[in-house]
Amino acid sequence: MRQIFTVANKEFHDGLRNRWLISITLIFALLSIGLTYFGAAASGAVGVASLSTTVASLASLSVFLIPLIALLLSYDSFVGEQESGTLLLLLTYPLSKSQLLLGKFIGQGSIIALATLLGFGASAVLLYFQLGDIEVLTSFSIFIFSAILLGLSFTAISYLISLSVSEKSKAAGFALITWFLFALAFDLALLALLVGVEQGISQNGLTQLMMLNPTDIFRLVNLAGLDNSDVNGVLSVAINASLPQEQLIAALLAWVVLPLTLAIFIFKRKKL
Amino acid sequence: MNIPIVSLSDAGKSYNDLDVLKSVTMQLNQGEVMGLFGHNGAGKTTIMKLILGVISPSRGKVEVMGMAPDSKEAWHSRSKVGYLPENVSFYEQLTGLEVLSYFTKLKGFTNKKAKKQAIDLLEQVGITHAMKRQVKTYSKGMRQRLGLAQAFIGEPKLLLLDEPTVGLDPIATRDFYKTVDQLKSNGSSVILCSHVLPGVEQHIDRAMILSTGQLLAMGTLAELRQQAALPVAIKPSGLNGSVANDNKLNRFLTANCPDTLMVPEQEKLTVLSQLLNHEGLADLHVESANLEQVYQHFLSLTENSLQEPLLQVKGATS
């Protein structure tokens, strides 16, 4: 346990030193405060937009940003140390592979989690003072919680990438493709399936398919409770057949635990 | 009977069909320094990885301090093993002290003790002046010293050093060997891989010579010399060519060094006493074959014998 904490501590401090924490926090804070105040600009008004509009726009932006940031932060965690020779050295220490992996996950995960909490939390507090509505805090806490899970999920996915390749540049390439597939291509494919194939897929089937993509689960968690008018595309179809919130969160949690377990498995079999 | 610190019995490693290490049997006792020689790809690093428990042997048995190093039981003995990898670049953005504190903590020191231990070690390798600077500003020699400090954490019982003197200046090299001698007298065992042969001789007890995954020779330097039967070079001065006229002595002269007698080890004393009878002998220089020559000898032996198996392999795969 102490070994895990030592590694986590080092990774966390790396995140502080590289200005990752401060930049991610700033990006999230600016984004959410900007959207909170100017989200309604499209409809001609400047000022605090409605809660559902704000959360909807935040969710649609985070769904691109959070996976990208998580992948960027962690894609070289293992392949980078392998290239510099410290991975081999670390493994001669009284430190197991799963301890090293979990330590890194806790350290880098904390960076993402803390940045999400601080960045989006800032605008939640701001909005709460403006609207004075307790509902702000509840919907924002669900949003922040699911955003953290999304970030952790992509951290775990980037470990899979980092452990499966032998060069840093390859890991970067795969990280980009992974991001593209999950954040963009998957939805387009679903839409094509929905439109192109007549009676090919039921509403229920669509929702099930969406469980295969953590970004879609994140969207469902945050948009399901909102007015349908703020949501369009594949989602509006899926929302009608949506699963209960707890089940969605559980699915998102599975998207953290499963890639992480698989990463440990791959690490244990990795040839050094 | 004390148990050897490291024992390999018929240990070998293959990746797919490639034998990186054929069968090697060796033992390393407490307080012994073993030199491991061989050119790139000879299997030196594979032996080290086997002993470190990072990889498991495909054949045979590896034991370190009485346990298989890749097993769970050996977990705690790992903190008593120090390793310096051949090519390692530490976390560039951290300072030397931070890097060393991290590794010290991972070896099981508590936070407070870790920092003290790290500072002590940095002092031992002589880079305290740079410990607050980021590693990326370090020179090659300083990085190597940092690596050594890392290997010395926790007074290891077993040290594996892969090319420890690369990048070190002569003074740092001397300091390094002093540390090795000191660790040895404290009862630590050391395995030392090196390409730089001069200077290693007086610090190692035994040497292992490897080539393409095969153990060519192992033993003390004296034993290896005997096995290689390399001649002793005797260089008399002040004789003005009278050796060439001496029937007993001129057969030891060779064409490429007309002043030096190349004498087999067992005839050394006879030749010396004959030389002493010569009038006008001003000085004598006697030199046994050094490690480098022994190494060259064993390598040249295999180069001839290796041709055949190589051809066989080629025939088998085509």
From TrEMBL, chain A:
Which UniProt keywords are listed? Answer: Membrane, Transmembrane, Transmembrane helix
- Gene Ontology molecular functions: ABC-type transporter activity
The keyword Iron-sulfur belongs to this UniProt entry's keyword annotation: no
One GO cellular component from the entry?
plasma membrane
Q: Does the keyword Ribonucleoprotein apply?
A: no
Instruction: Give the Pfam families listed for this entry.
Output: ABC2_membrane_2
- Transmembrane residues, as ranges? 20-40, 46-73, 105-128, 140-161, 173-197, 248-267
Highest taxon of the lineage = Bacteria
Instruction: Tell me the protein's name.
Output: ABC transporter permease
Organism the protein comes from: Colwellia psychrerythraea
UniProtKB/TrEMBL annotation, chain B:
What is the protein name for this chain? ABC transporter related protein
MF-aspect GO terms = ATP binding; ATP hydrolysis activity
Q: Which Gene3D superfamilies does the UniProt entry name for this protein?
A: P-loop containing nucleotide triphosphate hydrolases
Q: Which SMART domains match?
A: AAA
Cite the InterPro entries for this sequence. AAA+_ATPase (IPR003593), ABC_transporter-like_ATP-bd (IPR003439), ABC_transporter-like_CS (IPR017871), ABC_Transporter_VariousFunc (IPR051782), P-loop_NTPase (IPR027417)
Record-annotated ABC transporter domain positions = 6-237
Q: Which PROSITE patterns match?
A: ABC_TRANSPORTER_1 (PS00211), ABC_TRANSPORTER_2 (PS50893)
Q: Which UniProt keywords apply?
A: ATP-binding, Nucleotide-binding, Transport
Q: Which Pfam families match?
A: ABC_tran
Organism of origin is Colwellia psychrerythraea (Vibrio psychroerythus)
What are the top taxonomic ranks of the organism?
Bacteria, Pseudomonadati, Pseudomonadota, Gammaproteobacteria, Alteromonadales
